[in-house]
Amino acid sequence: MVTRGSWTRRGFLHGAVGTVALGMKGLSGAFAAPYVLQKGSKLTFWGGLIFSDKANKLLQEAVKTWGDQNGITTEVVMINQNETVQKVSAAIASNTMPDALDMSLDLLMVLSKQGVFLLLDDVYDSIGKAHGGWFAPVAAATDTSKVAGGRTGIPFGVSGNLLLRRTDLLKSAGFENPPATWQELVQQAAVVTKPPVFGLGLAFSNVGDGNVQISALQSFGGRIADDTGTKATIKSNETREYLRWVKDAWDKKVFPPGNTTWDGAGDNQAYLAGQTAFIANTGSVGIAAKTQDPELYKDTAYSSLPAGPKGVISPIQPQVRAVFKSSKNPEAAKALIEHLAQPAFMNAYFDAAIYGPVLQDQSKFRGFTQDSILSGLLDLVQKGTAPGYPDVYNAAYADMWNNFVVPKMIQRIVIDNWDFERAMDEAQAQTQAIYDKYK
Amino acid sequence: MRQRPSPTVKSRPSAEAQQQLFAYALVLPVVLLLVGLVGYPLFYAVYVSFTNMVVGGGGDWIGLANYRYLAGSPVFTSAIWNTVVLVVVSDVFKLAIGLGLALLVNERIPARGLFRSLLMLPWAMPAFVAFLTWRVLYQPIGGGINLVLTSTGLYPGIVDWLGQRSTAMPAVIVASVWRGFPFWFVSILAGLQSIPAELYDAARVDGANAWQRFRAVTWPGIRRIVIITTLLSSIWTANSFESVWLLTQGGPSDATMVFPVLAYFGMQTQRIGEAAAVSVAMLPALLILVFMTTSLMQGDGNEQD
Lengths: 439, 305
Description:
The structure holds 2 protein chains of 2 kinds. Chain A is an alpha/beta fold. Helix content of chain A is about 45%, strand content about 10%. Chain A has 2 domains: about 10-160 and about 315-385, D-Maltodextrin-Binding Protein, domain 2; about 160-315 and about 405-435, D-Maltodextrin-Binding Protein, domain 2. Chain A has helices spanning about 10-15, 15-30, 55-70, 85-95, 105-115, 120-130, 135-140, 145-150, 165-170, 180-190, 210-220, 235-250, 265-270, 285-290, 295-300, 330-340, 345-355, 365-370, 370-385, 395-400, 405-415, 420-435; strands at about 40-50, 75-80, 100-105, 155-160, 160-165, 200, 275-280, 300-305, 315-325. In chain A, α6 packs parallel to α16 (about 330-340), α20 (about 395-400) crosses α22 and α21 packs antiparallel against α22 (about 420-435). The longest helix of chain A is centred in the N-terminal third of the chain and has 18 residues, at about 55-70.
């Protein structure tokens, strides 16, 4: 028997009449798919642990409340997102997988190919129908039909990089508007660089932030591989142009020292410490500033990444939920995933978690209309590009991404003083070797 | 008279053989434990390194393909060289500092016990706290080391300790030495305390100076401990992940890339076979160190017998 608990947590409804209306719409329309839930059964859910304690608690409470209402014993294990690959590998090897879990898109793609997930087309369609439909870029990016014969992941949030800028520094230097191009970005950064404040806090290190440079390279027209996604094409005139931009910026000394070895928090710390005027970030810095440095929060504005000669490349990174085939309670897992898409929960969750929306109706949530960071994320979802675009997002591309080929190419130029040709040759050879593994 | 055939005598194991069987029975649980906890994972890792296993997949046998890929990768060559440099240079400094401090604290100096305790602090500190602290000290802007250099007038500019090829590996080595020298110190100190005082008295009577006493009495007394400590420290340093990961993630430009970090990158790409190949590639060198250590320790035990 289908049991649907209405959302009652006062905190989520506080002061949000519109949200309640959306929630009611969600409650009435979201339950197209009938799930047979067995009272007294168990369900294990691995939630993605993120930097926001509030968001983590909301998720845990939401699952527990849903379990209590439906007579299902739930166990929520929050998994650090940096350790998901290791934990999932171990769980698969020891056959101790949870029923459902949160993960990144690239892990979903790899595991979908292995056939370990249930197809969730019914859940996907049901949620989309109930909440105004999926955003097109999200729908396209998370489509696993080619590798799994159907949809295995249900998107629940989108992250991606926004350009954060210090309006106080930039306005006093005469820059009212965000830089439209990468060249403008360097021009503005150079004007406000006065050590110990440096203009451009972009990472060139072996961390995810360093891979923002892939987007910059692509916006200059550079490509990682050809349209078949098999032949490396990094060495090109467009990449040469991009490297010229990097070297020019480096020679202008607009980057804070240390950016070639920053860890994942390097740009965050530099911005929060007032050492840099621009960073590319998912928005977590803004949230940290909100509590730690309200003045800085007030002086921070958000915009999309600058454009290159080929326009703006701003990839979205969807987060997804999936159900293992090995689940002993697949109906409950599917029902839970659908339940977690309800507006009353997602509205509160988005406020704390700094994810962009995945469903059209979510764009009306309080945060996406009132909060500058969340508005930026909504803009990213609406205008952002699919992961990897214009390259083919496949396993080889993800491998190249995880081996930091582009940041390392930059390191060769700015650290080892290699010329462009030599750096491109090495990157080209490395990338081809990676792509060859997947032939 | 008809002779009765002699009854078949069942051969019973001799007392010695029984004793041996009993001994084998006693060690069997330990052997099973070792096979389960060490042998199986080790051989499984070797097997996986010859497959194209990815997360969630079984993996097919691909022979030496993973090793060929690694051998053709410039970062693999960097990792070999950097791991050797990190291990050798760190060990030299740890030996010098550990030995020097052990000799000092072995003397009758005031507050000797307090010094001994304080010198153990870096070893007692969790590795990630220690290396994150060093990362803060190395910060180009606002980092402790640059602040000292600036405030004392030694160097007014900004030094990017972790962001330059020339200083990144030395910076990692310094942090690694700081974290690891107490093990050397306490090991050598234990060796020093086991040397009979009479030997020093006899050397003094013979007119030996400090250097001669060190060469003739101290060094022979601690030589074996120093060798074992060197081998153990080498194994640990070669396997150390957090020192490099927390400071540089192997950068800049692979200047500090070492085997454990390279294996971690392999894991991040979800290619378990490839990650296993990186780990297995350093196995021969580590096994030599392990066998040398155990044979030396065995020798120690026999000598004591």
